[in-house]
Design goal:
single chain, mainly alpha, 66% helix, 0% strand, flat
Length: 105
């Protein structure tokens, strides 16, 4: 540990660095708990789709967006939405657009 002292004490100089990895472990807990269920996703494509949905839902959470509201709105609008503007439906852009609509109303 003495040879790595500078790396070990880095959190003292930068307040953004957490002393423990509890936040990372909590974030992975849901994934570990669901592992048994995902074992029977049906196929490799099914497992890939489950992973994609998990990624989208977690991305929404990281952007302080309610995943259920976001998914419901996106699934209702995506069929009529232009393909070249799909980036507008991503959680961080969706939240800004929704805020703009709420202020206009």
């Amino acid at each position: 540990m003495l040879t790595r002292w500078q790396a070990f004490t880095r959190f003292l100089d930068d307040g953004r660095i957490c002393l423990s990895n509890n936040a990372a472990e909590r974030a992975l807990r849901g994934l570990a708990l669901g592992r048994k269920s995902w074992l029977f996703a049906g196929s490799e494509r099914g497992a890939e789709r489950a992973a994609l949905m998990y990624t989208l839902i977690h991305t929404a959470k990281l952007n302080d967006v309610d995943p259920q509201a976001w998914l419901a709105d996106v699934l209702a609008r995506i069929a009529d939405h232009p393909v070249h503007r799909l980036d507008e439906l991503l959680p961080w852009n969706w939240a800004v657009e929704r805020q703009r609509r709420n202020l206009a109303a």
